[in-house]
Amino acid sequence: MRYSERLQARIETTGSRLCVGLDPRPGADGIEAVPDFLKRVVDETWEHAAAFKPNIAYFEAMGLRGLHIMEDLLGEMPKEVPVILDAKRSDIGETQKYYAHSYFAHWKVDAVTLNPFLGYDSIEPFLNWEGKGIYLLAVTSNPGSADFQRQTLADGRSIFELVTALGERAKGLPTDVGYVVGLTNTAGVLPKIPDAPLLIPGLGAQGGDLAELAAAGRSAPDVINVSRGVLYADDGFSFGERAKRWAERIATSYHESVA
Ligand SMILES: O=c1ccn([C@@H]2O[C@H](COP(=O)(O)O)[C@@H](O)[C@H]2O)c(=O)[nH]1
After folding, report:
1. Nearest to 116 by CA among 169, 61, 44, 60
2. What would you give as a GO molecular function for this chain, any one (predicted)?
């Protein structure tokens, strides 16, 4: 089964397009409290999750112990829920081969985010993996997406359209190619994005608005990420209740219903 088919099936089973972001910030209890914290988050939220997205930065920040925590977490994830590793890697093709091996063969994640700045040969080592997916950064959720990504070329195209053109070149290969589009920067962007799977961060702490996305009428298995809004909101709700509420909020804006 292709990655996009698996993700679509998960969205249909749960009625949820919520991607739960796993970005642990060790608190007063220190690094040794992180594994239990993440286990509780996963146990309480998985029913409401279309996908999980650990961001490798938060694990690397804890040193070697953090990588062990991530490895254990990945080994214990519910098999029903696709895992997108947010790594945003970019390097020459020879080195990317090793990143692809690390993420897909060793850690066995379903999909990974990549920075496309080094061009097609830098994503090629990721394209021949049956059942896997990559998300290329197209329009990120930060204000700096205006510096390059949303600049316009002399021929009228935006820079992010060069990214989607890169992804389109990979059509028909075993790996599915999708794009990262920040919910905070969708204005004028969505009509120019192909109907490939989108990973959409920016809901919750970053203040993104779902209206434009929902109105775009897309049919791809798009997922909307919430990290702090599930893990660290100061609202008296449990992780599971927060995930359920975000999933329902997304479904309501799409006029879908949560299972
Ligand atoms: O454009 C991007 C790409 C990735 N991210 C990542 O998503 C989460 C967002 O966390 P919140 O706490 O929900 O704001 C985080 O891992 C980012 O590094 C993004 O925000 N924007």
Report:
1. 169
2. orotidine-5'-phosphate decarboxylase activity
